[in-house]
Amino acid sequence: MSDIRPILLCISPFVPYDGIPHAGGQYLYSHLEELAHRFRVRLVAPGTSDNRKALARLPGSIDSLILLPSMDGNGWLRGIQVIDRAIHGVGMDPVFRACFRRSNVVSEWILQAKFIDFEWAQTATLSRYVRVLNPSAVQMLVVHDVLSHRWLREFDRTKGAFRRFYLWLRYVLVRRAEVVLFGLVDRVLVFSESERLQAKSVLETASVGYIPPPLSDDLMPSTVDDFRRLYDRRMRGTLLFVGAMGRQENDEGAYWFLSEVFPMVLRRIPDAKVFIVGGSPSARLKSFASENVVITGYVDDISHYYRRCGVFVGSVFRGGGVKFKTVSALLWGIPVVASTVGSEGIGRRSNYLCVSDDPSEFADAVVQGLSDYRFSMAIAECAFEWAHSEFGGTRFRDVLEEEYPN
Questions:
Q1: Are 374 and 398 members of one domain?
Q2: What confidence tens digit (pLDDT) does each residue in 336-352 have?
Q3: Does the N terminus or the C terminus of the chain have fewer Cβ atoms within 10 A?
Q4: Do residue 242 and residue 366 come from a single domain?
């Protein structure tokens, strides 16, 4: 029996799979898994070494896949990529773009597609070519970060004159590119209301929707009774910081907490312990390892830490977009202390023990979270209920059905 589902063509820098070690890939995996119930999903991605390795774990949601040659960001080719990105602001590398346009298979897939799903802004640089081949296909752009907002934030945080000039130039180029890309596609999708406003500030006439990522899973408590039973079993005096430590924003956030905040916490709670969980920790993070600081490196199952630790530390100061790890902490029912960036786009401040970028205020909130059981539990319970209503699978499915009708 022939498959009568309409075709959705996804263009992505990554091949997603269950367990992919970054938040954007995790979202794309869930995104395509859900859409595959109503569409035949075809994927075009660059043939990077990571994507070739991912083929062994290719999810069943992907009906067909083609990997096109790309520069893969190694050696002198990386220099060409940097120059190309400086010229265009954002974009897939020139080898991938050329192969995309010359591939007969890709052209056929474009002609057959009802939806073209661009994942990450750089893939939408192919929008004009796609539109020429298939003017009737609906073009969706899922923006994992509003990149110009990220560069502007970095500019505001930097003091050196040369570095500030470079960041301002990157901001101007990226914003110019986003203005064009947001205008080319039919619909832009972001992960929070604050990002929707950021995208509208880039191009007021852009059609922008908000799709809450589905971050709840079967391991998490799902009811208030589950939350209360789990909360009673949490290890008092324990803190959790989660992130891919090879990423600069996570390394810097963990370092800031360990060097600026945690010493103040230890003076008041000498037996407090923090778990720094995530792959590729730097040498400077490893140097903090002690009886009170556990640097785990990569772990296969992070749920153990979300289930047992008493307070979540969301000290992130760079980057843009919704911090999925913060949402995960709220879904697990852990009271959260976060920086401004760490909490951006994730509910009201009343969902947190504290939102602050000041080390002393941050430390005070951590100490209160570890010491005042009833206070912490009350905040965590309200945040838990809000997070499950906002980031649960039902809401996600409803929004996807509305945005991608078949």
A1: no
A2: 999 999 998 888 889 99
A3: N
A4: yes
